[in-house]
Amino acid sequence: MHPKNCTQFEVHFLKGSEGVNQLYYNDTIYFYHINRAQRKHLYIYIKNGEIEVRAPQKMSFKKIEKAVYEKRHWIVEKMRLQQSRSQNNYEEGGQFQILGKTYTLSIQPWDKKRIKIERNAEKKIVLFFPYGKIADEENIRKAIERLYREEANKILPPLFSQAERITGIKAFSWKIKKMSRSWGLCKRNGCISINWNLIRYTEDTILYVLIHELCHIKHFDHSKEFWNLVEYYLPEYKLQKKNLHSQ
Ligand SMILES: [Zn+2]
Questions:
Q1: Separation of 212 CA from ligand 1 center, angstroms?
Q2: Can you tell me the distance from the alpha carbon of 55 to that of 64, in angstroms, rounded to the nearest whole number?
Q3: pLDDT tens sequence across 138-175
Q4: pTM
């Protein structure tokens, strides 16, 4: 049966080899592999957009089919989620966060040779791109990175001063950096580094990170005393900490 003839939520299987099987769902075909081995139960794995059914050695094909059918909503939802996550954001309509607000990328050709990028009040990030050139993922990624760095240089210094005023703790020095593993870092000598990507979050969440790092100047650990100090300056720090980890 052609998938177009399937009604909503109706699922069909093409009986074929054990290797590749098909699941029809809502006009879409999903392929899945069956792998048999010595195991007691059947498991369905979805990884990198592929469906793998790990079945017990002796389970009949009919039973496997039935198990996949019963799990069809879950399978399709999981596939959909994985697809939307892997979709390229570095294109027209891509979404980017600054200070907790979502900005939509708009690409506009212009008659200059350079690339210009700016964010405007209408929650748009506008990328002006030379006519005739292709705004590919790499170019867009670089431009967005430049925008984030520029914005971080405007947004973070006043917040850092504010965090120093709140705590009365002064950093020996501090800088905005590209960091892949942490939002902030405090060295023993009182030098603090802040990840420029932090500007994705709201001011309150950013302040939490800055206060957190400043408190490390007094307590160079994550001891009870350290957290008490953070809480003293920022009673709702747990909420901000959660915001930081939930994205
Ligand atoms: Zn820390």
A1: 6
A2: 7
A3: 889 999 999 999 999 999 999 999 999 999 999 999 99
A4: 0.65
Distance 221 CA to ligand 1 centre (A): 7
* Domains in the chain: boundaries: 3-86, 95-148, 150-245
Q: For residue 83, report the distance from its CA to the centre of ligand 1, in Å.
A: 34
101 C-alpha vs ligand 1 centroid, how far in Å?
26
Pairwise CA distance, residues 178 & 197, whole Å: 8
Instruction: State both tokens at 166.
Output: 């709140």
What is the whole-number distance in angstroms between the Cα of residue 59 and the centre of ligand 1? 51
Select 150-245's CATH number: 3.30.2010.10, 3.30.300.30, 3.60.20.10, 3.40.50.300: 3.30.2010.10
Q: Strand 50-56 to strand 28-37: parallel, antiparallel, or no bridges (unpaired)?
A: parallel
Determine the Cα–Cα distance for residues 1 and 14; give it in Å rounded to an integer: 9
